[in-house]
Amino acid sequence: MLGAGTDFDRLLAEARRDVDANFREHGNAQFANMIRLTGFDREWARADGALLFDAEGREYVDCIAGYAVHAIGRSHPDMIAALCDALRSGQPQWVQFERNPLAALLAKRLCARAPAALKHVFFSNSGTEAIECALKLARRATGRSAVLHCDMAFHGLTLGSLAANGNPKLREGFGPLGDSECIPFDDLPALEQALASRRFSAFLVEPVQGKSCHAASERFLSEAARLCSRAGTLLIVDEVQTGIGRTGRFLAVEHDPNCEPDIIVLSKALAGGFVPVGATLVTKKVWDKTFDSMSRALVHASTFQSGVLAMTAGLMTLEIHDRENLSGRTETLGNQLRNDFERLARQHRVIGAVRGRGLMLGVSLRKSSAENLLASLPVIGSLEELAFGQAFVMEMLATHAVLCQVTESHTNILKFTPPLVVREPECARVVAALDATCRKLSSGVSASVRGALHAVRNACFTPTSDPSESKERIV
Ligand SMILES: Cc1ncc(COP(=O)(O)O)c(C=O)c1O
Question: Beta-carbon neighbour count of residue 174 at 10 Å?
Fold first, then answer.
């Protein structure tokens, strides 16, 4: 809260004064345009569990959760206390030439929860860095450089991860990328056929695709592990988004207990959303191929790996996960939410299907024949494509104070990833909001036209840091 007179309050107040100009001139102006048109450019004042509050005191249910990082909620008192204690303790970090005790303990505790063969952990600072580590170690262990990935896969946007990205739009203009090949998701025959070339270091796959919430079928991962092992290819399971309880198990691979991956990658919720972190869990056999002599002890390393705050937050996240049975409640609440969404799908033609697992759910939206006609027209068609799903996102936000999203790869899938501490009445608010939104947007004028009008209205009001002036924008 502002006004307490701390340095932080002073800096934040100064930052807010010219936020729009500063962001546009020195940051990403296109992103500023996007959040303005969609109505997301609010001033966020505080958070509590799964709730966000804007400067006017309006309460929102946050079903984006910082792209699924805030599993334990944004204001967990035990986490805040542990991080403040860590800062105040004076414990030096990044001494570099030390056996980092917090990192060693977190590695041990993560391995104890992972499939038995995973014994070593490399910590980094983001999902994509953790994927880069996995790709490097797989290259070294197999002596091969190509990577096999899935259609519409997302593993991050640095160059190595981008080579395994399944969305051509995101790769465009950044080539040439590393050697890679794309197969359909959840398709064992296609996997077997591709592996036969024996040129892949790794098959990199998400248990539930983050962009579409499409979950792999029941025994896909264990069968994939078997096929990969036969072909001398490593199986890397990307649990950056699904890990730490998101699907109703600590790791999503637990849904398929016979799956023995060579590498599992974690990030996002691992440090509770309080500190950036990434973790690459690796078998001893693969690890030892890279770190095979003292002279190679630092062939893969990073200055900011294993910071005191990140490691403390990781350890606290595991304790909070267990104490509050976050995986168990995620399974229960996720099933309830899914049932409620499926009930809405039976009531509203505009809902096509409900996908996902646990509290990682996607609701696919179906266009009317008039909207399909619009989508087939040149120029208007591409605007239609953009505006259709966004119309639902904007209505959920503006009228019902629920944050959800569509992704750049799947503009017709509404994605819900609330914090795992979300409460039943908050889930009920989300269901009621979707019900009302579907009713409103599937009657009369097309959803995309409504979305476009909404965007124009948002654009007509200048962003301001004065709450009294911005009131009219929230209609
Ligand atoms: C499955 C998956 N892998 C990797 C990443 C990349 O993580 P980051 O954005 O931290 O680089 C993401 C990010 O959304 C993800 O969902």
Answer: 12
Q: Could you tell me the domains of the chain?
A: 28-72+326-473 (3.90.1150.10), 79-323 (3.40.640.10)
| CB-CB contact of 426 with 370 (8 Å) | no
What is the b/e burial string over 257-285, where b = at least 16 CB atoms within 10 angstroms of the residue's CB?
Answer: eebbbbbbbbbbbbbbbbbbbbbbbbbee
- Ligand 1 atom 3: the closest Cα is on which residue? 155
156 lines ligand 1 (CB under 6 A): yes
Assigned token pair, 223: 């069968």
Q: Is the CB of 125 under 6 A from ligand 1?
A: no
| C-alpha separations of 47 from 1, 59, 295, 461 in Å | 11, 9, 48, 26
Which among 302, 288, 319 has a CA at the least distance from the CA of 119?
288
For the segment 447-466, what is each residue's pLDDT rounded down to a tens digit?
A: 777 777 777 777 776 544 44
pTM of the predicted model as reported, rounded to 2 decimal places: 0.94
User: How far is the CA of 125 from the CAs of 16, 132, 266, 296, 402, in angstroms?
Assistant: 27, 11, 10, 22, 29
Count of positions (residues) in the chain: 475
Ligand 1 centroid to residue 67 C-alpha, Å: 9
Mean pLDDT by 10 residues, the chain (475 residues): 79 95 96 92 96 97 98 97 97 96 98 98 98 98 98 98 96 96 98 98 98 96 98 98 98 96 98 97 98 98 97 98 98 98 97 97 88 71 79 96 91 96 98 97 75 74 47 36
In the reported structure, the alpha carbon of residue 131 is separated from the centroid of ligand 1 by a whole-number distance in angstroms of 9
Q: Encode burial over 110-127: b for 16+ CB neighbours within 10 A, e otherwise.
A: bbebbbeebbbbbbbbbb
